[in-house]
Each structure stands twice: as C-alpha cells, then as structure tokens.
Amino acid sequence: MGLLDDARNIQRKDPAARSVLEVMLLYPGFHILVYHRIAHWLYRHGHFFLARWISQRGRHKTGIEIHPGATIGSRLFIDHGMGIVFGETTEIGDNCTIYHGVTLGGTGKDTGKRHPTLGDNVLIGAGTKVLGPVYIGDNARVGAGSVVLRNLPANCTAVGVPAEVVRINNKAVNPADDLDQQDLPDLVAQRITALDQRVSQLEKAAQGELPPTATQVAARSNPLLRPEPDGPDKR
Fold first, then answer.
1. I need a labelling partner for 45 at 20 to 30 A (CA). Which of 76, 167, 173, 181 fits?
2. Is the CA virtual torsion 224, 225, 229, 233 positive or negative?
C-alpha cells in the first residue's frame, strides 16, 4: 500500500489531479518517490554507488534531488518539485507537504547528522531553505521564501529571513492540508510600521502637536533671539 497510498494522497491534496492513474503516470513528485524507495533500499544494504546512480537518474528525470540516505515517511506530497534538494541525513515525517525550490540542506562540511528533521504534517513553502540539523515540530508551517536556521516548535507558523515564529496553536486545521500560503504576516511591513510610529512619537515629543513656525526655528538657531528665562534670579 506504500506507493499507492502516496499516489492517493497526492490526488487528494492537488485539485489539478483528476485521478490516481494521472498521478502515477504524470506527476514527478510521485516518480521521485519510486526512485527513492529503490535507492534507499540499496543504500541501507550497502550498495552506495548503485543507490546514488538510481537517485541521480531520478534527479535527471524529475528535477528533484533526494540523497538515497534520506529517510522519508509515508504520504509525502511534493508539489511540482523542480529544484528540490534533500540531503543525506534528512528525515521527513508522515503526511508532509513540500513545494518546489525547497532545500533541506547542510551548512558546511560537518559530519554525522547535518541535515534537517521534519515532524509529521509539516508544510514547507516554495523556495524555503532549511539548513543544518534543525528540527521542525509536528504541524508546523513555514512560509514561502523563508530561511530556517534554528529549531521550530510544533503547531507554529514561521516566516522570514531568518525565519521567526509568528503563530502558535492558533488554527485547528491540519497545516499539511491547508495549501493556502497567502494568509501569512509580513514581518518587514510590520516592523516598518512600528518604526514609523516610533518616529512620529519622537517628532511629536520634540516639536509638540504642531510643527514650529519659521520664527521659532530661527529663534532656536540664534541665541540672541531666544526668550530670557523667567525666575527670581533674573537680573
């Protein structure tokens, strides 16, 4: 039931897929899973060269590069898929959704566990880069174009470069089934707005409710025109 279950999952999640047969014959996201199942079996049994050869054949056929050492759970939905890269020690849980242009890669020439781990029901938006041995918790959603460099908790939404958590436990839907990536906050716009409000407050504190007149500006710049201080010591 493994590959058939994968095909049915793709057909269920992709509104453009009209049948399971269409998915099995025409979808590169399904084809690469077939290549990877073979390559991963060979890799686990010590046939490293042959495993890599199979994975490279899959790369040339689909535009998706998955190292044969990567561990992938059931019902992975790779949408479009072109430009996707999974490193050797990548681990992906069940029922995840990954869009085109995603990299689950390392940060250098480290050895051992050096690639990301994804929990179950994780959604990774188009063009996202997840680098290093970071962990992304169950039901997390990462917005398109983000760069993830540190662990993300379960049930969160993260966006930005580097990615920051902007929501946790605020939706009851399964993120892997929610393919709408437009409902995400714009961190840059929020910070610009906050900065603009801060500048306005500082200007208001410096010049009062109304801008100074030309006479007031001239008086500030010329000590002779400034009013003398009032008080008992005035001579």
1. 76
2. positive
